[in-house]
Amino acid sequence: MSAVLPAIDDFAAASAHAPLVRTAACGSEFNFGAGDFERVRRLIYQRAGISLGAGKQAMVYSRLSRRLRATAHASFGAYLQWLEHGGAGPEWQEFVNCLTTNLTSFFREEHHFDALGAELRKRAGAPTRIWCNAASTGEEPYSIAITVAETCADVQDAQRVRIVASDIDTRVLASAARGVYPVETRGLSRERLHAHFLRGKGLNAGLVRVKPVLSKLIEFRQHNLMAEDWTLGEPFDIVFCRNVMIYFDAATQRRVLERMHRAMKPGALLFAGHAESLANAADLFRLHGKTIYERV
Description:
By secondary structure, this protein is an alpha/beta fold. It contains 12 helices and 10 strands.
């Protein structure tokens, strides 16, 4: 099945005229001392709860130096002072966007989607709310939506399931909402590409777009786990929070898990990343399966 994807042309044209970003070696363009790095670590922790390791200096320099050029600041000190003293406005979001890591793929840790399908079959006919946080460029929430479509009896049955997909990074969320990917995207079988995606022609050759019937199951929302107000339409029956806690220190992990616990129904399931353990939150969640936890 083929279809033209008109919005991709506009995106491609915009990308073609975007300025190239020059990556400079640390110290070759801007001074970036230990004090600057510590200020960045403090600010991203306060803003997003992210604990940057001591070995991330080169990464921080490479990413934030782009913002110095874009905002015409001659030094990290001047840029950070601008942020700290309230003159930056929307730049705070750009600062956070630069320092978040977005590594994802379709059907990553595939056993989770087998377990999701089994849970949906158990809940057959019941309205179900799913929250996928740290949705990144969309591969994870679309994998959830594909699982819903493949598990439910028909389109009407699938519509009983609603998916909220959130991320702190507004740029990746915009990409996720568009739902456009290379045809050779990792994690997607030929059968799933044919069933759930529209193939581009002409200038859009080599690209696919998620079918509307699938994307209508998902609401994309910008959300900061450090925010005081969690207005996400909770409580949820199922939460995907995978490879998120690894970026937080222990105190932040606990605070997020306590709030997540309040946003979930009793007995709801929490899917965590393979490198994450909730052993220190046994009063909140008990192990239900391989890196799957049940709300206590």
